[in-house]
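Chapter review: from sequence to fold.
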Amino acid sequence: MNWQYVMIHHSLTKDGAVVDWNAIRRYHIEVQGWQDIGYHFGLEKVRDIYQVQVGRSLNLPGAHCKQNNMNSLAIGVCVVGNYDLVSPCPDQLTFLARAIIVPYLRKYDIPIKNVVTHHDYIPYKTCPGKLFSMDILRQICTEML
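The token string follows.
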């Protein structure tokens, strides 16, 4: 795969104390009929600890945004939560940047401007949420690079 972007999504569900990632995977496989969860990675808070959840292999295209061939160009990252209703906390954004985004920006030489949202390609969606600040996330990533 020739990864050129990192695309941020949200699950549009409340993050609980359990592993919601498994429910998302089941939905994508059993309801959507996909071979696996649509995202490559997820970020979820489980029992008050942020965890990276592994999705599809980076050797495979995602199933998170078909517009502009983004499934083949963008590493799909889902942050579990509904960020139309609440803002992600600063610790969450820092963890997201440090644990998932920045390592792949470095590995694939992806510029910070190519950290994008689902909304950028499907404007009628709010994903990753109206209260999710990409400016803050990009600033955190830039400071880590």
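Two observations follow directly from the output. The chain has a mean pLDDT of 94. The chain has one domain: 5-144.
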